[in-house]
Amino acid sequence: MATYGGGTRAEGGAAPKAPPRGGTGAAYREVIRRTGAALPVLSFLGRLPVAVIQFGSVLLVSETSGSLGTGGAVACALALGQVTAGPFVGRLADRHGQRPVVLVCAALNAVAIAVCALGALLGPPTPVLLALGALAGATVPGIGPLARARVVPLVRRTGADERLVHTALSLESTMDELSFVVGPALVGLAAVAGHPAYAFGAAAALVAVCGTGFALHPTARAAGAARPAPAPRARGARARLPRQAHVVRVGLACLGVMLGACGAGIAALTEETGAPGQAGLVYAAMGVMSAVTGLAMAAVPERVGLPARWRAATAAAALLSLPLLWTDSLAGLYAVVTVFGAVYAPNLVTGFALTERAVPGHRLAEGMTVAASAFVGGQAVTLAVAGRLAEARGASAAFALGSAAAAVAFAVALCVRPVTPDAGAPPGSGP
């Protein structure tokens, strides 16, 4: 048995601890019992501002500048700022603990969000708006990936079986999906109530209050203490991560491309059918289905290994994306996208689980934030490219790009091999 995150995890032929009785619901209750009921609430509300400002920046800047292209560019700058700074935030959290890093980032992000909204209202030149968007993205505290890096060691610390770990990751991915359903809805309500800038004010308050609460929660210290210290290395030396960690990141980037292309296709098709206002509702239908399947992932038998799960999830994404190429009506779009939404959470749950298995324990926060950045980066870049593609060639062209990305993700998943991490092994060792 090798220690990992302060607990033990089975290796080789060692028998895992029996899962909690009572099925999937009991597994979720057990995860919440170990983390405390407040932590999921704080982490959900703390990550909600990311979804609010990502969607809201398009609406706010488009309204204040009169240009949809400028709104999309600011949203892209915001996402790229998050992608660029996210791994650095994770690295700092690994070195100094989550508490001080999240406290500082939450305060900076609250200010940056407020300044971004104020800048949009004042109508400065586009380069200034892009810089403000990038600043708002770069200061995101990364509560989603850091919550995964915190919860998994806590669950493992008492010798939990792999099913309980997958349950914890399923819960985290479900909260991600719900945040990207609730976030755009809050922006829409703010726009109806008066102005999209109201949503930015709410986002700034949420990250200040709930981000601080997430940082101060007792599990921040417990998770940091559970992580084993790395062996001393020569100055300037940095251990290489296993090949599998990089393979998974490439796969997650492809899935981000798929989501970005699908989003551009949805926006284009709803406009083509004369119902652009339905785009948000179509997103919501897709997100709700993804959240449901994310929760159901905890019921997958442990004997189905992570590589097999990821191959099945990416294959399903490639196959279920094909009907989008021939969808030309709003009713058909709702039906196809709702079914297609079932593939997102299984891919994310499995991708993060593979990352957790591959990276050394003392670099878990960095590994999770880089994995999240790969997904968000693929999505952000594709939104800009696929949007132009959809304008020139129609919605089916954007959907075709997403389907091709899903096929590449499946090819990448075929390269993933089973791995049993050992925190005592030299960092970077692995397949």
SSE topology sketch:
Blueprint: E1 2-4, E2 7-9, H1 23-35, H2 38-65, H3 68-96, H4 98-122, H5 126-138, H6 143-156, H7 162-193, H8 197-216, H9 218-226, H10 243-272, H11 279-296, H12 306-321, H13 330-340, H14 344-358, H15 364-393, H16 395-413
Antiparallel strand pairs: 1-2
Helix pairs in contact: 1-7, 2-3, 2-4, 2-7, 2-8, 3-4, 3-5, 3-15, 4-5, 4-8, 6-7, 6-9, 6-15, 7-8, 7-11, 7-14, 10-14, 10-15, 10-16, 11-13, 11-14, 12-14, 12-16, 14-15, 15-16
Could you walk me through the main structural features you see in this protein, from its secondary elements to its overall organization?
This protein has 431 residues and is mostly helical. The chain folds into two domains: 36-227, Up-down Bundle (Growth Hormone, Chain: A), CATH 1.20.1250.20; 242-422, Growth Hormone, Chain: A (Up-down Bundle), CATH 1.20.1250. Helices cover 75% and strands 1% of the residues. It contains 16 helices and two strands. It has helices at 23-35, 38-65, 68-96, 98-122, 126-138, 143-156, 162-193, 197-216, 218-226, 243-272, 279-296, 306-321, 330-340, 344-358, 364-393, 395-413, and strands at 2-4, 7-9. The protein has a two-stranded antiparallel ribbon. A hairpin with a 2-residue loop joins strand 1 (2-4) and strand 2 (7-9). The longest helix is centred in the middle third of the chain and has 32 residues, at 162-193. The radius of gyration is 21 Å and the shape is globular.
